[in-house]
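Subject: for your reference before the review

Hello V.,

The reviewers asked for a structural picture of the protein, and I figured it would be easier to keep everything in one thread rather than splitting it across files. Below is the amino acid sequence we used in the manuscript, unchanged from the supplementary table.
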Amino acid sequence: MADDEVPRAIQALWGAESGARRGPKPALTVRGIAATAVEIADRDGIDAASMAAVAKRLGFTTMSLYRYVDSKADLQMVMVDEALGAPPEINRRLGWRNQLAAWAEAEAAQLGAHPWVLDVRPGSPPLGPHTLAWMDLGLEILGRAGLEPERAASTLLFVDGYVRQQISLGLQYADGGAGWAGRLRRVMPPDALPALANALADGVFDDDPSDFPANEFRFGLDLILDGVEKVATR
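And here is what came back from the structure prediction:
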Protein backbone atom coordinates (compact mmCIF):
# COMPACT_ATOMS: atom_id res chain seq x y z
CA MET A 1 0.00 0.00 0.00
CA ALA A 2 1.31 3.43 -0.95
CA ASP A 3 1.92 5.95 1.81
CA ASP A 4 -1.06 8.06 0.71
CA GLU A 5 -3.39 5.16 -0.09
CA VAL A 6 -6.50 4.73 2.06
CA PRO A 7 -8.09 1.26 2.36
CA ARG A 8 -11.43 0.93 0.57
CA ALA A 9 -13.12 -0.06 3.81
CA ILE A 10 -12.02 3.18 5.48
CA GLN A 11 -13.14 5.18 2.45
CA ALA A 12 -16.54 3.53 2.77
CA LEU A 13 -16.82 4.61 6.42
CA TRP A 14 -16.32 8.18 5.24
CA GLY A 15 -18.89 7.72 2.47
CA ALA A 16 -16.24 8.13 -0.20
CA GLU A 17 -17.36 4.95 -1.95
CA SER A 18 -20.10 2.38 -1.57
CA GLY A 19 -17.79 -0.20 -0.05
CA ALA A 20 -18.24 -2.61 -2.94
CA ARG A 21 -16.78 -2.93 -6.39
CA ARG A 22 -18.79 -2.51 -9.59
CA GLY A 23 -21.78 -4.79 -9.91
CA PRO A 24 -25.18 -5.30 -8.29
CA LYS A 25 -26.36 -3.10 -5.46
CA PRO A 26 -24.34 -3.96 -2.34
CA ALA A 27 -26.04 -6.38 0.02
CA LEU A 28 -23.81 -5.36 2.93
CA THR A 29 -22.17 -2.23 4.32
CA VAL A 30 -18.72 -1.89 5.80
CA ARG A 31 -20.21 -0.45 8.99
CA GLY A 32 -22.57 -3.43 9.26
CA ILE A 33 -19.71 -5.86 8.71
CA ALA A 34 -17.70 -4.06 11.40
CA ALA A 35 -20.61 -4.20 13.86
CA THR A 36 -20.95 -7.95 13.39
CA ALA A 37 -17.21 -8.43 13.83
CA VAL A 38 -17.32 -6.37 17.04
CA GLU A 39 -20.06 -8.61 18.43
CA ILE A 40 -17.89 -11.67 17.78
CA ALA A 41 -14.77 -10.07 19.28
CA ASP A 42 -16.67 -8.91 22.38
CA ARG A 43 -17.79 -12.47 23.01
CA ASP A 44 -14.79 -14.53 21.90
CA GLY A 45 -11.83 -12.19 21.44
CA ILE A 46 -10.21 -10.50 18.47
CA ASP A 47 -8.77 -13.71 16.99
CA ALA A 48 -12.27 -15.16 16.68
CA ALA A 49 -13.37 -12.27 14.46
CA SER A 50 -11.98 -13.73 11.26
CA MET A 51 -13.31 -12.96 7.80
CA ALA A 52 -14.79 -16.46 7.69
CA ALA A 53 -16.51 -16.12 11.07
CA VAL A 54 -17.97 -12.73 10.20
CA ALA A 55 -19.19 -13.98 6.81
CA LYS A 56 -20.82 -17.01 8.41
CA ARG A 57 -22.60 -14.86 11.01
CA LEU A 58 -23.91 -12.61 8.23
CA GLY A 59 -24.97 -15.55 6.06
CA PHE A 60 -22.55 -14.79 3.23
CA THR A 61 -19.48 -16.50 1.81
CA THR A 62 -16.04 -15.41 2.94
CA MET A 63 -15.16 -14.32 -0.59
CA SER A 64 -18.18 -12.01 -0.70
CA LEU A 65 -16.75 -9.99 2.20
CA TYR A 66 -13.69 -9.19 0.10
CA ARG A 67 -15.94 -7.02 -2.09
CA TYR A 68 -16.07 -4.66 0.91
CA VAL A 69 -12.94 -5.31 3.01
CA ASP A 70 -9.62 -6.17 1.41
CA SER A 71 -7.91 -7.88 4.34
CA LYS A 72 -8.18 -8.92 7.96
CA ALA A 73 -6.03 -5.93 8.89
CA ASP A 74 -8.54 -3.60 7.23
CA LEU A 75 -11.37 -5.43 8.99
CA GLN A 76 -9.72 -4.78 12.33
CA MET A 77 -9.28 -1.09 11.50
CA VAL A 78 -13.00 -0.65 10.88
CA MET A 79 -13.78 -2.79 13.94
CA VAL A 80 -11.82 -0.41 16.16
CA ASP A 81 -13.65 2.56 14.69
CA GLU A 82 -17.00 0.86 15.28
CA ALA A 83 -16.10 -0.17 18.84
CA LEU A 84 -15.03 3.33 19.86
CA GLY A 85 -18.18 4.83 18.42
CA ALA A 86 -18.81 8.55 18.29
CA PRO A 87 -17.09 10.65 20.97
CA PRO A 88 -19.08 11.80 23.99
CA GLU A 89 -21.04 15.01 24.24
CA ILE A 90 -18.91 17.13 26.55
CA ASN A 91 -20.52 19.83 28.66
CA ARG A 92 -18.99 23.01 27.22
CA ARG A 93 -19.80 24.91 30.40
CA LEU A 94 -17.16 22.89 32.24
CA GLY A 95 -13.58 24.09 32.33
CA TRP A 96 -11.06 22.42 30.02
CA ARG A 97 -9.73 20.29 32.88
CA ASN A 98 -13.09 18.67 33.60
CA GLN A 99 -13.76 18.34 29.89
CA LEU A 100 -10.49 16.47 29.32
CA ALA A 101 -11.21 14.24 32.32
CA ALA A 102 -14.62 13.44 30.85
CA TRP A 103 -12.94 12.64 27.51
CA ALA A 104 -10.50 10.25 29.19
CA GLU A 105 -13.19 8.58 31.29
CA ALA A 106 -15.40 8.09 28.23
CA GLU A 107 -12.53 6.49 26.31
CA ALA A 108 -11.80 4.23 29.27
CA ALA A 109 -15.44 3.14 29.29
CA GLN A 110 -15.35 2.26 25.59
CA LEU A 111 -12.09 0.34 25.90
CA GLY A 112 -13.37 -1.43 28.98
CA ALA A 113 -16.43 -2.55 27.02
CA HIS A 114 -14.28 -3.70 24.09
CA PRO A 115 -10.89 -4.66 25.61
CA TRP A 116 -9.78 -6.55 22.49
CA VAL A 117 -9.19 -3.13 20.89
CA LEU A 118 -5.96 -3.03 22.92
CA ASP A 119 -4.75 -6.13 21.05
CA VAL A 120 -5.17 -4.59 17.59
CA ARG A 121 -1.97 -3.36 15.95
CA PRO A 122 -3.08 -1.18 13.04
CA GLY A 123 -0.68 -0.54 10.22
CA SER A 124 -1.02 3.22 10.53
CA PRO A 125 -2.32 5.92 12.85
CA PRO A 126 -6.13 6.14 12.92
CA LEU A 127 -8.08 6.98 9.79
CA GLY A 128 -11.67 6.10 10.75
CA PRO A 129 -14.27 8.85 11.25
CA HIS A 130 -15.18 7.90 14.81
CA THR A 131 -11.57 7.58 15.93
CA LEU A 132 -10.61 10.89 14.36
CA ALA A 133 -13.66 12.57 15.90
CA TRP A 134 -12.32 11.55 19.32
CA MET A 135 -8.99 13.10 18.37
CA ASP A 136 -10.66 16.26 17.12
CA LEU A 137 -12.58 16.68 20.36
CA GLY A 138 -9.48 16.13 22.47
CA LEU A 139 -7.49 18.68 20.48
CA GLU A 140 -10.33 21.18 20.76
CA ILE A 141 -10.38 20.79 24.55
CA LEU A 142 -6.62 21.19 24.82
CA GLY A 143 -6.80 24.23 22.59
CA ARG A 144 -9.13 25.78 25.16
CA ALA A 145 -6.48 25.07 27.75
CA GLY A 146 -4.14 27.33 25.78
CA LEU A 147 -1.89 24.71 24.20
CA GLU A 148 -0.63 25.31 20.69
CA PRO A 149 -1.48 22.53 18.19
CA GLU A 150 1.84 20.65 18.43
CA ARG A 151 1.75 20.57 22.24
CA ALA A 152 -1.94 19.68 22.19
CA ALA A 153 -1.30 16.72 19.89
CA SER A 154 1.56 15.45 22.07
CA THR A 155 -0.53 15.86 25.21
CA LEU A 156 -3.52 14.05 23.75
CA LEU A 157 -1.28 11.15 22.69
CA PHE A 158 -0.02 10.95 26.27
CA VAL A 159 -3.52 11.00 27.75
CA ASP A 160 -4.68 8.33 25.31
CA GLY A 161 -1.66 6.19 26.21
CA TYR A 162 -2.44 6.57 29.91
CA VAL A 163 -6.04 5.48 29.42
CA ARG A 164 -5.00 2.44 27.41
CA GLN A 165 -2.33 1.48 29.94
CA GLN A 166 -4.76 1.69 32.84
CA ILE A 167 -7.33 -0.48 31.10
CA SER A 168 -4.62 -2.99 30.21
CA LEU A 169 -3.38 -3.08 33.80
CA GLY A 170 -6.94 -3.44 35.03
CA LEU A 171 -7.39 -6.55 32.88
CA GLN A 172 -4.09 -7.93 34.13
CA TYR A 173 -4.98 -7.38 37.77
CA ALA A 174 -8.50 -8.71 37.33
CA ASP A 175 -7.12 -11.92 35.84
CA GLY A 176 -4.29 -12.55 38.29
CA GLY A 177 -4.44 -9.97 41.06
CA ALA A 178 -6.58 -11.86 43.54
CA GLY A 179 -4.41 -13.10 46.40
CA TRP A 180 -1.30 -11.34 45.07
CA ALA A 181 -0.51 -9.73 48.43
CA GLY A 182 -0.68 -13.12 50.11
CA ARG A 183 1.64 -14.64 47.52
CA LEU A 184 4.06 -11.76 48.03
CA ARG A 185 4.14 -12.39 51.77
CA ARG A 186 4.90 -16.05 51.17
CA VAL A 187 7.73 -15.56 48.70
CA MET A 188 9.44 -12.26 49.61
CA PRO A 189 11.72 -11.94 52.65
CA PRO A 190 10.76 -8.70 54.48
CA ASP A 191 14.32 -7.36 54.46
CA ALA A 192 14.95 -8.06 50.76
CA LEU A 193 12.95 -5.18 49.32
CA PRO A 194 12.24 -2.81 52.22
CA ALA A 195 10.13 -0.20 50.41
CA LEU A 196 7.92 -2.88 48.88
CA ALA A 197 7.73 -4.66 52.24
CA ASN A 198 6.56 -1.44 53.93
CA ALA A 199 3.84 -0.97 51.31
CA LEU A 200 2.80 -4.58 51.78
CA ALA A 201 2.67 -4.14 55.56
CA ASP A 202 0.47 -1.08 55.10
CA GLY A 203 -2.01 -3.17 53.13
CA VAL A 204 -1.44 -1.25 49.89
CA PHE A 205 -1.86 -4.42 47.82
CA ASP A 206 -4.75 -5.92 49.76
CA ASP A 207 -7.41 -4.06 47.75
CA ASP A 208 -9.94 -6.00 45.74
CA PRO A 209 -8.34 -6.27 42.28
CA SER A 210 -11.75 -5.86 40.69
CA ASP A 211 -11.66 -2.24 41.89
CA PHE A 212 -8.64 -1.56 39.68
CA PRO A 213 -8.32 0.70 37.75
CA ALA A 214 -11.33 2.59 39.15
CA ASN A 215 -9.52 3.40 42.40
CA GLU A 216 -6.33 4.46 40.60
CA PHE A 217 -7.55 5.96 37.35
CA ARG A 218 -8.58 9.41 38.57
CA PHE A 219 -5.51 9.78 40.78
CA GLY A 220 -3.17 9.28 37.82
CA LEU A 221 -5.35 11.38 35.56
CA ASP A 222 -5.22 14.27 38.03
CA LEU A 223 -1.42 14.08 37.98
CA ILE A 224 -1.51 14.38 34.21
CA LEU A 225 -3.97 17.26 34.33
CA ASP A 226 -1.75 19.06 36.83
CA GLY A 227 1.10 18.75 34.34
CA VAL A 228 -1.03 19.98 31.44
CA GLU A 229 -2.10 22.99 33.49
CA LYS A 230 1.51 23.80 34.28
CA VAL A 231 2.51 23.63 30.62
CA ALA A 232 -0.52 25.68 29.57
CA THR A 233 0.29 28.49 31.98
CA ARG A 234 3.93 28.85 31.00
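For the response letter, the relevant points are probably these. The chain has eleven helices and no strands. The chain has a mean pLDDT of 89.

Happy to draft the paragraph if you're swamped.

O.
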